[in-house]
What does this fold into?
Amino acid sequence: DGGITQSPKYLFRKEGQNVTLSCEQNLNHDAMYWYRQDPGQGLRLIYYSQIVNDFQKGDIAEGYSVSREKKESFPLTVTSAQKNPTAFYLCASSMARGSGANVLTFGAGSRLTVL
Amino acid sequence: QKEVEQNSGPLSVPEGAIASLNCTYSDRGSQSFFWYRQYSGKSPELIMFIYSNGDKEDGRFTAQLNKASQYVSLLIRDSQPSDSATYLCAVNFYSGAGSYQLTFGKGTKLSVIP
It folds into this structure.
């Protein structure tokens, strides 16, 4: 079945450590996204990528980094520069970002807790 | 700044009633509108999307769009306890150079009481 796989589902990090969240899709979608969700809040865009080897900052990119070396993969690194990283992280994909349609398919999410 | 506003709730309705969820948005030029359902601790899943003014029905769900009033709503008929979730409204704003950005509201928490 086609879908988006995020791992790990739960992750604990000590302050000062970088962590990488994995996101893999087999939907053959061009565009991929990372969102952050805090309790009682909507989704906020961290980074997005429309094609391989290209990505753009979203609304809250500071303290995060991404790569897009393969169409299927879009890992997110939460760096030590991110001051409040405890959140629910959601990876999503869509057929193309440039269109007005933009129907997103989401992965199951990764919950990061800083100890 | 593109904004999407929703009443955070919680909205409580009895089982079998109609639940009405509302959303307003700031950009009159927005083209497409989405409703996602999110159960606690889970990821959002698409319920339906709408592009044109008027109503769009899918089973027990009806999306209503009024571009002049910059207002989109979701009606859930014959509400069931399994509909209890947070409903996220998302609006596709044109961000220039042929690109669109999807902006989410904070969501409305719906509770269907048996």
Remarks:
- Residues 18 and 28 of chain B are 28 Å apart (CA to CA).
- The two ends of chain B are 40 Å apart (CA to CA).
- Chain B has a mean pLDDT of 92.
